[in-house]
Amino acid sequence: MSDYRRAWHPGGTYFFTLNLLQRHGNDLLTRHVALLREVVRSVRHRHPFHIHGWVILPEHLHCVIELPPGDADFATRWRLIKMNFSKALPKTERLSATRLARGERGIWQRRYWEHLIRDDADYRAHMDYVHFNPVKHGWVKHVADWPYSTFHALVRRGVYPLDWGGGMEASLGYDD
Question: Does the annotation mark 129 as catalytic?
């Protein structure tokens, strides 16, 4: 097994990607978006964090969050979000022998991607990536057309113009 090391930085701002175990043809996250939002709200109440940007796609999500000063424990937050979301769903997924032996559900991939935001340019690039992702994956032609995103709140706050991210793939570098 590789020697994977997480970046633990108290009060840090992080970019995360979480994937469902079965990605192809799965719309579980958008189908149960209200449940996912409620689970996140509940975890935030017990283990606070600030959401800078978030997008929920059918089978994965991206976000930029900031932990409170002195707190680097994003792992507990993700464990609780994944566990509570999974527990609230009916048991219809097929489970491998390994997952059965561990008492796990077959909803989420075990790991997730995290990146500690380094500076303002890194922050802006990851916020743009979060919000442009539905266009990148072909779900919509314009960022504003995707309903499961913090983009709309950021437009209201003047962070993004409403027409940002529509037909701009080449200039943003997301055309690959």
Answer: no
Distance CA 39, CA 36 (A): 5
Q: At what angle do helices 33-46 and 74-87 cross, to 10 degrees?
A: 140
Q: Which of 14, 129, 148, 160 is catalytic?
A: 148
Degrees, nearest 5: CA angle 34-152-86? 25
To 5 degrees, how large is the angle CA 80–CA 23–CA 62? 50
Contact 114, 74 (CB under 8 A): yes
**pTM recorded for the entire structure:** 0.86
The residue behind tokens 């059965």 is 100
CB 64 within 8 A of CB 91: no
pLDDT classification of 7: cutoffs 50, 70, 90: confident
Mean pLDDT rounded to a whole number for the chain:
89
Strand order in the sheet with 60-66: 50-56, 60-66, 13-19, 113-116
Task: Name residue 115's beta-bridge partners.
Answer: 15
In this prediction, residue 174 carries a pLDDT of: 45
